[in-house]
Amino acid sequence: MTRARKMCLPPNLPAQFWALARSRQAAAVIAFFCALGVALAIPAHAQEGDTDSLRQQVQSLTQRVDKLETEVHALQHVQAQQPAAPVSQSFDPEASRRHAWNELKEGMAAADVKKILGPPSSQFKTGNITVWYYHYSGVGSGSVTISSDGKLSDWQRPSHGW
Fold first, then answer.
1. Spatial separation of the C-alpha atoms in residues 142 and 82, rounded to whole Å
2. Coil, strand, or helix at residue 156?
3. Residue 146 DSSP label
4. Cα-Cα-Cα-Cα dihedral sign, residues 143, 107, 102, 85
5. Whole-angstrom Cα distance, residue 105 to residue 109?
6. CB within 10 Å: which end of the chain, N or C, has fewer?
């Protein structure tokens, strides 16, 4: 019993406790307190290691956040010095074609018509006029008429959906 008392229990317990410890019933109480002391000591020791690990993780994460904040600040500074890029809108080929056909003006040079509409899908020449045809899948066909002086004299937009 003295060996258990020396190993598990603190020496400054009251004398009444030691009197009780001498009895058989007290042996269970002593075993309980020894087990409790061991159980409490192990997690405390493990928690110290866990605490050190957590401190290291917090320090590492703090350093990473500081580095990222520095990089973000530098990028914001660079971005602030550059002119704003135009807002990107999704490309709609049909809307683009419709806009191009709306740009046509009577008397335009044939070269300007080609710049706006692009090269024709096919062309037909009769006498002193040339007709350019533009075929669009799913939209239909349009045509422009170029007079003998090389100017736009008439046009028909694709009719489907416009």
1. 43
2. strand
3. E
4. positive
5. 9
6. N
Instruction: Report CA Rg, the chain.
Output: 46
Angle value at C-alpha 90, between 114 and 103, nearest 5 degrees:
30
Q: How far is CA 31 from CA 11, 13, 23, 67, in A?
A: 16, 15, 13, 54
Residue 161 DSSP class: T
* 27-38: pLDDT as tens digits: 665 666 656 665
**Spatial separation of the C-alpha atoms in residues 121 and 86, rounded to whole Å:** 32
Contact present, 160 and 94 (Cβ < 8 Å): no
Cβ count within 10 A of residue 142: 23
CA pair distance 70, 109, nearest whole angstrom = 57
| Beta-ladder partners of 143 | 133, 156
Helix (H, G, I), strand (E, B) or coil at 108: coil
45-57 tens-digit pLDDT:
556 678 888 889 9
